[in-house]
Specification:
Length: 919
């Protein structure tokens, strides 16, 4: 503990000596500008610039905290610590007409205003104008995009991830050629990743109805952001005000597809297959002092992939014999169609905001998620799946759907935030956060449930299980407790100094059981049993790794140039031990003299320099350049798996964690140009290059007694490069966005297990090949239009898809081994989503809104996975070979090869009705 205290006091001392203070990272914006005489252009000294109102549901509402500033001798002013939104800005100067401006403020962005005042002809005269929206972002030093609540409300989106995938450079969660897990997901400026898993997805889900702003950074990023190598997704939540605002929204929907030969089980007339209910309510508890915002959602989706209950889990079948007369098939199922990818999700969000004084705000927020779902994907503790692997997954339970497991994901999030403004340019934030997530996968909650049955019930040759059930029981829990302290000091109109630190204590809890037969008699009865943690069949542990980070940054805003210069320090303590000899990690080989000792794993340290520059080329163009080093630790599963260091007697079965793993590292460069080619039409072009080092891999290790197992290590390398084109147009009621990405992602392995799996099958490793997510061409377009009470939007996506390994029929195994990895492309994909909303104004403050939302509008058959011999999802050239070994009296080989789970979601239609009010 003393080590952490020494580091903290050192960083804090440096901060004080440099008088640098930090912007509350990723939750507020800033307004800066100049006030001058409209005729002479001379600066106006002492002009009062005040934020007096905020716009909610199209209505202007007076705010209690009237933030503002006075112009200096050069007519300059700045207002910091502004929550994202649309505001009424009032400018007053004696002898001039009062101006009221409607101004948009976005997260992590400076809105620049050039305000020209005209002389007052009549005392008290005022003029209302809409501030010209800044089309060229002067302080943009790297690629980023911001989505406000107004635009989110128009688009057809189900969740935050749908919005993220629309951004340039993002391919199914992979940012600019990086692996899954290289993105930091944040809520109100604080990271909320599930650091246990390999995908490191967000541990906490926020419903779009609760979102005020979403910031997506897909390139380099400033020192205030860390623990990520490829990108940042920061969701800023709403808070209540002095008016009561509410919404109740009810959806009903279904999958409506013409491809009933693929998506069997869908009834196009059943328009209650999808039930989606939402509500939001906000307002004052004590006016001007205490406000609230709450949101809830219930979403029950019946799914679109169906199995048939031919077998019950207790049915015993055996198709092993070549002689069909000896086949045995007990099938007592009712033959009903059962969904294999249904889901149920429930979420709740609440925020209380207390304003003790005009300069002190305290807020408490909480988010609860409860999700359960079936999936046709593989079930691995680290979340790694191979899209070309035709193995033991949910689809294998097509004819015994009750034997497939259910996945459960629950999370609880709590945050206390103190925002204290000391002077107009000086404020701090103190945040205390705890979030907890648990992921479970099982058929029955009790691992000793008597309904688990003997593996003999599942003897099958066609690939489908014929009785029996999933006999792995997984539960992993993750708790993170974080203290975050940030300070901001706007020294003058040029320098904004930033610094802050963050300390996190993590708790990782894992329970994994292989359910085995505890019956020691020959009766044939299966008695479920789980072994203790010393057994290879069980893994139970708790670990408490710790993290500390600090950063220092200066944002310099000159007349024609903005510079971001910063440095970040990160520290990670795995708080675990490691064996000194990995050839005898568990000391089970007593015949050798080499014995492992168990020592504390070293603490990891990283220092990350960051630099960004934006230079204005006149009033309609800006050039930017950025460079940085970015670090993050791998998922905790790779540090602690097989924590007792046991090695199986079966080669290539054990996969062991390594608490001495280093942080993965990316060195990234970016150059870009913004250009307003026509009024309100902005084109942004960026070129990027990334070197990615110390990537996680599972290497092969041989023990002294010739057992081979996998050990996680930092051995992989990858590189990514590309060009991003973004076109944005917004004028009055119309907005349009188009982005195109050309990128190349090459590396030694697409996921950490790829080396190990190839070694286990004697396939040679190919260096620097195309990665699974090397999608060369990606196009996204969205257009929206508002006219009176009507708004509509269309989202289009086309991509050249990702590669796969084409494997033609060959006569020898050695010839197959020579086939290059990812040597061909799957078919391209196209998708269109449409929304139409219409408002009925009951009164000025009460509205009813009708929703029509259609996902996959044209019902395209998009192939997400394919057979290796054809590159298609519904055919294989191995049919003749497969027929020789095919055994079944309940399905054909063609049906076995037809995989609806290899296709993306068919057309989904949702119809909704909402009631909105504001008082």
């Amino acid at each position: 503990m003393m080590k952490y205290l020494r580091i903290f006091f050192f960083v804090f001392l440096v901060d004080i000596l440099m008088l640098s203070y930090v912007l509350y990272a990723g939750t507020t914006g800033k307004i800066s500008g100049k006030v001058r005489d409209a005729n002479t252009g001379e600066p106006l000294v002492g002009a009062n610039v005040i934020i007096e109102g905020v716009w909610l549901e199209g209505i202007e509402v007076e705010i209690f905290d009237k933030m503002g500033a006075a112009t200096d001798i050069d007519g300059n002013f700045f207002i910091t610590n502004i929550a994202p939104g649309t505001y009424t800005l009032v400018v007053r100067v004696i002898g001039y007409k009062t101006q009221k401006l409607k101004v948009d403020v976005s997260v992590d962005k400076t809105t620049f205003l050039d305000i020209k005042m005209t002389e007052e002809a009549i005392k008290g005269e005022e003029v209302v104008v809409v501030a010209t929206k800044e089309r060229i972002q002067k302080d943009l030093t790297s690629s980023k995009s911001t989505l406000s609540a107004d635009r989110i409300d128009v688009l057809a989106v189900e969740n935050v991830n749908s919005l993220v995938d629309m951004q340039a450079g993002v391919v199914d969660g992979h940012f600019r050629g990086g692996r899954l897990g290289e993105v930091a997901y944040m809520i109100d400026g604080v990271m909320v990743n599930n650091d246990f898993s390999s995908s490191r997805e967000s541990a906490v889900d926020v419903d779009p109805e609760s979102v005020q702003d979403i910031l997506v950074i897909s390139g380099t990023f400033n020192a205030e952001y860390g623990k990520a190598m490829s990108g940042i997704v920061n969701t800023v939540t709403k808070e209540g005000g002095n008016n009561f605002v509410g919404k109740i929204l009810m959806y009903a929907g279904n999958y409506v597809s013409s491809h009933d030969n693929i998506f069997t089980g869908i009834d196009n007339k059943d328009f209650n297959r999808i039930k989606d209910y939402k509500f939001t309510f906000s307002g004052p508890i004590i006016k001007n002092r205490l406000t609230f915002f709450i949101n809830g959602r219930y979403n029950n989706d019946g799914g679109y992939i169906y199995g048939i209950r031919r077998f019950n889990v207790t049915d015993s079948s055996n198709f092993e014999s070549i002689n069909s007369a000896e086949w045995y098939s007990e099938h007592t199922g009712d033959g009903k169609e059962v969904s294999l990818n249904n889901s149920l999700s429930k979420s709740a969000f609440a925020k209380l905001t207390l304003r003790l004084f005009s300069n002190l705000k305290i807020s408490f927020s909480s988010i609860l998620n409860r999700n359960e779902y079936k999936t046709t994907g593989g079930y691995y503790e680290s979340g790694i799946t191979d899209k070309q692997y035709h193995g033991d997954d949910g689809w294998m339970y097509k004819y015994v759907p009750d034997g497939a497991p259910t996945l459960y994901n629950n999370s609880d999030y709590y945050a206390l935030d103190i925002n204290h403004v000391l002077t107009p340019g000086l404020f701090y934030n103190l945040k205390l956060i705890q979030y907890e997530t648990e992921n479970m996968c099982y058929v029955y909650k009790n691992p000793l449930d008597s309904r688990y049955v003997h593996p003999k019930y599942s003897y099958s040759r066609p690939g489908f299980y014929t009785g029996g059930n999933y006999k792995l029981w997984d539960h992993n829990g993750f708790i993170k407790k974080t203290l975050k302290f940030d300070l901001n000091y706007q020294l003058n109109i040029i320098h904004e100094f930033k610094t802050g630190f963050e300390y996190s204590l993590n708790t990782v809890k894992v329970k994994h059981y292989d359910i085995i037969n505890g019956n020691t008699t020959n009766s044939g009865e299966f008695i479920p049993r789980v072994m203790d943690d010393e057994s290879f069949y069980t893994e139970v542990y708790t670990k408490e790794p710790r993290e500390f980070s600090a950063y220092l940054q200066d944002k310099m805003e000159f007349k024609e140039m903005v510079i971001n210069l910063g440095v970040r320090f990160d520290m990670f303590d795995p708080a675990s031990k490691y064996p000194t000899d990995y050839r005898n990690p568990d000391n089970s080989n007593m015949a050798v003299t080499f014995r492992s000792e168990y020592k504390d794993a070293e603490i990891q340290y990283q220092i990350s320099p960051r630099f960004g520059l934006a230079y204005q080329l006149g009033s309609a163009a800006s050039l930017h350049f950025s460079y940085g080093h970015f670090f993050q630790m791998p998922g905790f599963y790779s540090l602690y798996k097989e924590h007792n260091f046991h090695v199986s007697s079966y080669n290539y079965e054990t996969q062991m964690g390594n608490p001495r793993l280093k942080a993965e590292k990316t060195v990234s460069y970016e150059v870009g140009l913004q250009q307003e080619v026509y009024k309100n039409l902005v084109v942004d072009v960026s070129v990027f290059y990334r070197d990615i080092y110390n990537l996680l891999t599972l290497k092969s290790v041989q023990t002294y007694d010739a057992r081979v197992y996998g050990l996680y290590d930092n051995l992989d390398y990858a590189t990514a490069k590309g060009i991003i084109l973004n076109v944005d147009y917004q004028y009055d009621r119309l907005f349009f966005n188009f982005n195109y990405s050309l990128q190349y992602a090459e590396g030694e392995a697409s996921n950490p297990k790829q080396f190990f799996l190839k070694a286990g099958t004697a396939v040679p490793v190919i260096k620097l090949t195309r990665l699974d997510y090397d999608q060369r061409h990606t196009l996204n377009a969205s257009v929206g239009y508002k006219y009176k009470n009507l708004d509509a939007s269309l989202i289009l996506n086309w991509n050249s898809n990702t590669p796969y390994t084409y494997e033609p029929k060959v006569d020898s195994y050695s010839a197959k081994a020579d086939i290059p990895e990812n040597n061909s492309d799957m078919p391209s994909r196209f998708n269109a989503d449409f929304s139409l909303h219409y408002n009925f104004n009951i009164t000025k403050k009460i509205k009813t809104k009708f929703y029509l939302e259609v996902y996959n509008l044209f019902d395209n058959l998009n192939e997400n996975a394919v057979f290796s011999t054809t590159g298609r999802a519904n055919s294989s050239l191995d049919v003749e070979t497969l027929k020789e070994n095919y055994r079944s009296d309940f399905t054909t080989l063609e049906e076995f090869l037809y995989r609806p789970d290899y296709y993306s979601q068919p057309r989904m239609v949702k119809v909704g009705l909402s009631f909105n009010f504001i008082y």
